[in-house]
Every structure is written in C-alpha cells, then in structure tokens.
Design goal:
The protein is 58% helix and 0% strand. It starts with 8 loop residues before the first helix and ends in a 13-residue tail after the last helix.
Length: 81
C-alpha cells in the first residue's frame, strides 16, 4: 500500500493550473491530474478508468511523486539518467 500524498494549498493551486492548462504538455497535465486525484482519496482503479491510463503508468507517476517530490515529478524523465 502506498503512502498518502498530503499537499498544501499552494501545491494544490499549482497542480490545478498545470492539470487544466492548455499550454502545458499533455504528459505533464496527466501527471498533475493523477496526483490531484490520488491526493483527494480517489482509488487507483477509478483514476485509471477516468483518465484512460493503465494502472502501471499511474503507479509510476505516484512512485515518482512520493520519491522525489510532487512538483519535481511533473517533469518527464527519459532514459536511464
């Protein structure tokens, strides 16, 4: 079982801006939507159905958010570096 994400008001505001912005890259917006949904207590299977993402991808987003920090995890990392 994963740890809950506890977000302060400023972080929530920033994630909302990213999640619903039309100028942000789609992956960044999806990550923000997943983090907001998980932090609000939505089940992972529900997030998967609503956002049409597979569960391993959601788990990856959440593991990065829990491991490196919420705002840092919004950036897409490619490769092994």
């Amino acid at each position: 079982m994963r740890s809950p994400l506890i977000l302060n008001n400023e972080t929530i505001r920033h994630l909302m801006m990213v999640a619903f912005s039309r100028k942000e890259p789609e992956t960044r917006a999806l990550r923000a939507q997943v983090i907001l949904a998980y932090a609000s207590g939505t089940r992972i299977s529900t997030i998967s159905k609503c956002l049409e993402l597979n569960r391993p991808r959601i788990y990856r987003f959440l593991d990065q958010a829990l491991g490196m920090g919420v705002l840092e995890s919004l950036e897409e990392r490619r490769g092994r570096s």
